[in-house]
Design brief:
The protein has 363 residues and is an alpha/beta fold. The protein has eleven helices and 19 strands. It has a domain at 2-39 and 78-109 and 229-312: FAD/NAD(P)-binding domain, CATH 3.50.50.60. The longest helix is centred in the last third of the chain and has 19 residues, at 280-298.
């Protein structure tokens, strides 16, 4: 009877098991026949992975298998390579039929397939940090700044150098927040080299001496590359929705988060062209809107009743170690312990686990 009931349900395929896709799949698993396609077996809270490098035990809470929250769905550990009007095609040649499709492929990351291997990777990064007297960080976006902050706070005796090719750190937010983050890093003896770059094609893990584009020499026992990752949309360039990819590779969506003029293909998270900061909490909002819209459509509701997504206001929060953070809101920029209490202390791990239907701390 269970198989018969599943056969009667609408088929929803979610491609991408990141912050948006995982929440969407979890939210509709008892309303549809849900299939999640993801190249890894686990969900990872992305804003916790930098602290997991200095505190690997944190990853035990921040990384959990898709099977823990998706208890009434199907998980296919693979990569999607194309879509038709009726199916998603995987790299092995499987055809996964859908009535509704949700694309949530965000950015491309090279991560291990299994949770155990991912946890081991954090352990290896931690050993790398502990064994290094000096560390080079390439990239001054949120990833590079937060990693520099975590290392500077937990290992104040280590020499940390951050190289960024832009004129200021955190270029995605305002000047004031950028300046506050720079001042904080400098106060923790992090050397920041702006408007300089490192030729990544010429360096290896064995290198200990690095030369910037300005000719400065940086001595470092190890290095971490913290640059923006490419969008996870290249697999759609020859698909039926190729005309709805903008010049940046983002999917053009309407106010209901449907792709182009499609009635049954949605996109959520960083892969969308919505003019707003691409952040985890925003991706979660996308997921919850599409979950409600899918439930409505599955029940046969009128399209006029679909929820319209309103772009998020400009706000951002960047952790600076365990206690501090810089937060930018529409009318103010705040620095220090107050925003740090909001984000930096637990990095929203407990909140995210509860949202995914799990205990705040694993039992």
């Amino acid at each position: 009877m269970e198989g018969f009931g599943r056969a009667l349900k609408k088929k929803v395929v979610v491609v991408g098991g990141g912050i948006a896709g995982a929440l969407l799949a979890k939210s509709i698993q008892f309303h549809a026949d849900v299939t999640l396609i993801d190249p890894k077996e686990y969900f990872e809270i992305p804003w916790a992975n930098l602290r997991s490098k200095v505190e690997p035990s944190l990853a035990e809470r921040a990384v959990f298998n898709h099977t823990e929250y998706l208890t009434n769905g199907r998980i296919i550990t693979s990569s999607a390579v194309n879509i038709t009007e009726t199916d998603v095609l995987t790299i092995e040649g499987r055809q996964i039929p859908y009535d509704y499709l949700v694309i949530a492929t965000g950015h491309t990351y090279s991560t291990p397939r299994t949770r155990r291997d991912r946890l081991e990777q954090f352990q290896e990064d931690n050993i790398k940090i502990k064994s290094s007297g000096s560390i080079l960080i390439v990239g001054g976006g949120p990833t590079g700044v937060e990693l520099a902050g975590e290392i500077a706070m937990d290992y104040p005796d280590k020499k940390v150098t951050l190289v960024h090719n832009g004129p200021r750190l955190l270029e995605f937010i305002g000047l004031k927040a950028s300046k506050k983050a720079l001042d904080w890093l400098k106060s923790r003896n992090v050397e920041v080299l702006l408007e300089q770059s490192i030729d990544l094609a010429t360096i290896s893990e064995a290198d200990r001496v690095f030369t910037t584009s300005a000719g400065e020499i940086v001595n470092a026992d190890s290095h971490f590359v913290c640059l923006a990752k490419p969008l996870g949309s290249s697999w759609l360039r020859e698909s039926i929705i190729k005309d709805y990819l903008d010049r940046n590779g983002r999917l053009m969506v309407d106010e209901n988060l449907r792709v182009g003029g499609s009635n049954n293909i949605f996109a959520i998270g960083d892969v969308t062209d919505i003019p707003e900061l691409k952040q985890g909490d925003v991706a979660q909002r996308h997921a919850l809107v599409v979950a409600k819209n899918l439930k409505l459509l599955i029940k046969g509701g009128k399209e006029s009743k679909l929820i319209k997504y309103k772009p998020a206001s400009v706000k951002a929060m960047v952790s600076l170690g365990r206690k501090d953070a810089v937060a930018q809101y529409p009318l103010a920029t705040i620095m220090g312990h107050l925003p740090g209490m909001i984000k930096s202390r637990d990095l929203f791990i407990g909140k995210t686990r509860k949202q995914m239907g799990l205990e705040s701390h694993p039992i």
